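Title: Comparing notes on inverse folding

I've been comparing how different people in this forum approach sequence design from structure. To keep things fair, I'm posting one structure and asking everyone to reply with a full sequence. Here's the target:
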């Protein structure tokens, strides 16, 4: 998360190589809608802040940029 004073809040989705994939405006959404959105996108929510993240979620939900070949080996 990066707070930018005066900027409208948005969720910026990045790929494995930190390329921007999508920007989703959040200013009109409630907390419940944002929580539902990140779950739909495949983000993992820990039960407690100190819980470890399962290995299958360490890079998830990163996905290749549109049109880029899928490279599970990277």
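Reply #1:
Here's my take.
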């Amino acid at each position: 998360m990066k707070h930018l004073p005066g900027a409208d809040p948005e969720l910026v989705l990045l790929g494995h190589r930190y390329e921007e994939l999508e920007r989703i405006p959040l200013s009109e959404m409630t907390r419940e809608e944002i929580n539902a959105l990140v779950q739909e996108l495949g983000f993992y929510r820990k039960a407690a802040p100190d819980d470890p993240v399962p290995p299958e979620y360490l890079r998830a939900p990163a996905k290749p940029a549109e049109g880029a070949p899928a490279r599970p080996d990277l």
